[in-house]
Design a protein that fits this description.
Largest sheet: 7 strands, mixed
CATH superfamily of one domain: NAD(P)-binding Rossmann-like Domain
Number of strands: 30
CATH architecture of one domain: 3-Layer(aba) Sandwich
Strand order of the largest sheet: 9-8-11-10-12-13-14
Strand content: 15-25%
Structural class: alpha/beta
Shape: flat
Radius of gyration: 31 Å
Number of helices: 23
Helix content: 25-40%
């Protein structure tokens, strides 16, 4: 962490637990942001002193007001600035003079309005650095801490939420108010609630590091509209997960990306910002959520119940249809229906009616009361083959909803296995749902919705038990040689490396490039082809041509010196017929590798996450099937292997249905070397190795074609 990050962590403790608060710019007008923030702090019963600051008022309500913050004689821990943006810099400067270290700037009118606002924001940052202050905002809803030791409601939210163990951080203030209302309806409480707005100073990364050590927080939720420091976010999330075992759930908007198709390489066109974001989150152990409901569905599973040890579940239901629907979704989420042992089956035969289905899912029949649910749940939960229960209830005329809810709560209290519930309906089951929520039993309106939270908590539990390896650093590489080629082309104003030069760049990182040379005449082509050995591949070399096949610039299976000389002339003729004013540098000749399977490797420079590596099925199929995987560099061996297994066509490499098993370890080695190349040569914007020809197990792989954009 940087010196400023360490300062933020210290100042955030003061911000969340202030003993004195100044509301700078408040007023007497109810229904305005300045007035409501002051009222909210008073009504939340802050465990400290509050000072209203307003140059034109002697008092706000019954509380003495101060003209300026520097007029307050006692120390002030936290300042909340609600002045117009045009004077926020002066207010912040006075806070610095006063010795205040923690500030929340609610005011809007900064970078969100354009260049003038951005200048104001930069002024605030400079003032904060000058006085060793830390601030949240500007352009935010504010901060809430429900801990009884603080009870801070430094926001203009309508309600003060209940105390809980879930922290919610958001870039959007408007979403915060909706989330608070949603959570209240579901009886969900919070530990900390932060709208950080423009994150001009304190960012989501700083807040993650603070919450890592916050005893009141068990689960961290985050809504982001933009990611300005992807690697920093990934590292913070990894640290939180590894050191505190707290899950990090993120909802990131902006899933679609217009204009991404302008990329030149396969990697550039396939690696959209959202695909990279998905891969980066998964790599860091972050659980990505699609919407607010899904986020809280998963959050309450983490907050309220033990983590599952395996994917084996039992479904208990009083209606067959919902049980089948839940089974379908469970299988889709990677869960399995547990097979009950003999003792459990005997218990079910003794305690359930003959019409009940005693196999999984267990159907206790529509007229089931609490005793039948008790028998089914206790039987299943004690079975060593079962690691979690999904309990479904549909309201019939004889269903004792409240008693069943109480019974579930008792069993869950004494169990070390997770229990989730779905009381289907709304009005009839509402009293039962309240009982479940009171006892912190996760409840879901639809039974299928129980499956993803179970899968997410299982993923997290397995993640925290894994040992994460360090990325391999190869010493048999020639970084200077690669950089020299790149710099030479940049100086010449070229952004597209000719293939023979691109091949030398990857060869410098000891990727196995097939033998190749550039010919500039017919005779030279024949001589080079003879020296490489047949068959050879011949390709046109030109800065003006990216996709050579489209202009008949590639010929395969050239098998003699005479054929090589004729092919040289033919390629140039064919290209000139299809393109005018094209400058041809020569014909690139490479040894043709026989057999093997074609895959693709690539690099893309992402504005949020930096160097990203791609792997997928190669040749012409990559654009058709788009069967690819991504990781943010640097990449360790386990991540490289998981990239290979992740694509849908991976079984083609693993020897499925009698196919030859390919050299997976050599692909992983190539991925890791490419990862190091991406990290050490940041001038590379896009890179394709297509194809990388993979031979059978133990025989390695070869780079057949390379494109590099710098």
């Amino acid at each position: 962490m940087t010196k400023r990050s360490d300062l933020h962590k210290k100042n955030l403790q003061t911000l969340f637990y202030p003993k004195s608060v100044a509301v700078v710019g408040t007023n007497k007008v109810k229904g305005t942001v300045p007035g409501d923030i002051f009222t909210n702090i008073l009504q939340a019963d802050l465990n400290g002193i509050i000072y209203p600051v307003n140059p034109r008022e002697t008092h706000i309500g019954s509380v003495k007001a101060y003209k300026y913050v520097i007029d307050i004689s006692d120390p002030v821990d936290l300042a909340i600035i609600v002045f117009p943006s045009s004077v926020c810099d002066r207010a912040l400067e006075q806070c610095g003079e006063k010795g205040i270290k923690a500030v929340i700037i609610i005011s809007a009118g900064f970078k969100e309005i354009g260049e003038k606002g951005l200048e104001r924001e930069e002024q605030l940052k400079a003032i904060a650095e000058k006085w060793d202050m830390s601030f949240i905002g500007p352009n935010c809803l504010g901060v809430i801490n429900t801990d009884p030791a603080s009870r801070l409601n430094a926001s203009f939210a309508r309600k003060f939420p209940a105390e809980g163990n879930i922290a919610f951080l958001s870039q959007s203030g408007a979403l915060c108010t909706a989330v608070l209302d949603y959570a209240q309806a579901r009886n969900i409480g919070f530990s900390k609630f932060v709208s950080f707005g423009n994150k001009a100073d304190i960012s989501e990364i700083d807040l993650l590091y603070y919450l890592m050590d916050d005893e009141k927080t068990k689960v961290i939720l985050l809504y982001l509209e933009e990611i300005s420091d992807g690697p920093g976010l990934m590292k913070a999330a990894k640290d939180v997960i590894e050191k505190s075992h707290k899950p990090v759930l993120i909802m990131k908007s902006g899933r679609t990306s217009e204009g991404a198709s302008a990329a030149v390489s396969h990697t550039g066109s396939l690696a959209g910002s959202d695909e990279i974001c998905d891969a980066a989150f998964r790599q860091a152990g972050i659980i990505r959520c699609d919407n607010v409901e899904e986020m809280f569905n998963i959050a309450i599973a983490f907050a309220y119940q033990p983590l599952p040890k395996s994917e084996k579940i039992a479904i208990i239901t009083n209606a067959g249809g919902p049980g089948v629907l839940t089974t379908d979704r469970a299988i889709k989420e990677g869960l399995t229906l547990a097979e009950f042992n003999e003792e459990t089956t005997k218990k079910f035969i003794r305690s359930l009616p003959s019409t009940a289905n005693i196999k999984n899912p267990v159907d206790v029949i529509g007229d089931a009361r609490a005793d039948r649910y008790h028998a089914a749940m206790t039987g299943a939960i004690l079975d060593e083959n079962v690691d979690g229960l999904l309990v479904i209830l549909t309201p019939q005329s004889m269903t004792d909803i409240e008693k069943i809810a109480e019974e579930i709560s008792k069993i869950a209290f004494s169990s070390k296995k997770p229990i989730y519930t779905s009381f289907m309906g709304e009005a009839d089951v509402s009293t039962g749902i309240k009982i479940l929520q009171k006892h912190h039993i996760p409840h879901y309106s639809l039974p299928e919705a129980m499956c993803k939270p179970f899968a997410s908590t299982l993923f997290f539990n397995k993640l925290t038990q894994q040992k994460i390896g360090d990325p391999v650093v190869f010493t048999d590489v020639d970084k200077d040689a690669a950089l020299s080629i790149i710099e030479e082309n940049l100086k010449a104003g070229k952004t597209y490396l000719p293939e023979y030069k691109a091949a030398k760049v990857v060869q410098a990182y000891n990727l196995p490039v097939v033998p190749n040379e550039l010919a500039k005449s017919e005779k030279e082509a024949g001589k080079i082809a003879d020296s490489l050995g047949y068959p050879v591949v011949m390709k046109v070399m030109s800065d003006d041509i990216v996709h050579k096949f489209d202009v008949k610039g590639v010929v395969l299976n050239v098998n003699s010196r005479e054929e090589a000389e004729k092919t040289y002339t033919q390629i140039i003729s064919d290209v000139n017929k299809r393109m005018t004013d094209v400058k041809i540098d020569g014909i690139h000749i490479a040894k043709q590798v026989e057999g093997g399977t074609e895959v693709i490797l690539g690099i893309k420079r992402d504005p949020s996450f930096g160097s990203v590596v791609m792997f997928g099925l190669g040749g012409i199929f990559v654009e058709i099937f788009k069967d690819v995987s991504f990781r943010v560099a640097p990449i360790d061996k386990e991540s490289a292997l998981s990239m290979i297994k992740e694509i849908q066509s991976s079984e083609m490499l693993m020897g499925a249905r009698g196919r030859m098993t390919m050299d997976i370890d050599s692909i992983a080695d190539a991925i890791m070397r490419l990862s190091q190349l991406a990290m050490e040569c940041p001038e590379i914007k896009e890179l394709d190795i297509n194809p990388l020809i993979v031979l059978k197990e133990g025989k390695g792989c070869f780079v057949a074609d390379t494109k590099i954009i710098i």
